[in-house]
Design goal:
The chain is an alpha+beta fold. It is 42% helix and 20% strand. Strands 1-2-3 form a three-stranded antiparallel sheet, with no helix packed on it. Strands 5-4-6 form a three-stranded mixed sheet.
C-alpha cells in the first residue's frame, strides 16, 4: 500500500476492524518512512450479484442506497441520527444476506426495514409503513396506529394526573 503523503510503499498495519456486516475491513496504517498514519478499506469482492424481485416480478440489482434513502425520508426531522440510519441499513443487510443468496423479494426487505425502524422511532416507522404498505384509507392507517399504541410501555410515561 502506498502512503498517500510520501508515496512510499513501506508501511505497517496498526489496527484492523471489520465493518458493514463483516464485509469491509478497515485497516489503520502507519508509513515507516514519514511516520504519518492513514486508513484503508478492503471490501470483499463478491462473485455474484444479489437481485431484488419487485412486486411486479421484475428483477433489479440490490442497492443499499435505496434502503438508506427510504430511511432518511422516513426519519426527516426526527431525532434519528445518521449513525442510527446506517445501523438499521446494516441490520437489514445482515437479514438479507443471512437468508438469501441470489434473489430476495422486496417484501422481505421492506418488512426487515420496518422491524428495525419500529424499535428506533415510532413516527418514522409510521411514515415508512404508510408508503411501503400503500394504505388506501385512514382506517388502515388508524389500524397501524393502534398496533403502535399497543407497543408503547406506559410505565415509561410520566403520570400527568399525579399530585405533586
Amino acid at each position: 500500500m502506498r502512503c498517500p503523503f510520501c508515496k512510499n510503499d513501506n508501511d505497517k498495519v496498526i489496527d484492523s476492524r471489520s465493518s458493514d456486516g463483516s464485509r469491509i475491513i478497515r485497516r489503520r496504517r502507519q508509513c515507516l518512512e514519514c511516520d504519518r498514519r492513514f486508513t484503508t478499506y478492503e471490501k470483499i469482492s463478491e462473485s455474484f450479484k444479489l437481485y431484488v424481485v419487485k412486486k411486479d416480478k421484475s428483477r433489479v440489482p440490490y442497492d443499499r442506497e435505496k434502503i438508506v434513502c427510504g430511511l432518511q425520508k422516513a426519519c426527516y426531522k426526527r431525532a434519528v441520527s445518521v449513525e442510527q440510519i446506517q445501523l438499521i441499513a446494516d441490520k437489514v443487510e445482515e437479514d438479507v444476506f443471512q437468508n438469501f443468496d441470489k434473489e430476495v423479494i422486496s417484501a422481505f426487505i421492506g418488512e426487515s426495514v420496518m422491524t428495525h425502524l419500529r424499535r428506533t422511532d415510532k413516527v418514522a416507522y409510521i411514515r415508512f409503513a404508510s408508503v411501503y404498505r400503500e394504505f388506501k384509507d385512514a382506517g388502515e392507517l388508524m389500524e397501524e396506529f393502534s398496533h403502535i399504541i399497543d407497543d408503547v410501555d406506559v410505565s415509561d410515561q410520566p403520570d400527568l394526573f399525579e399530585d405533586k
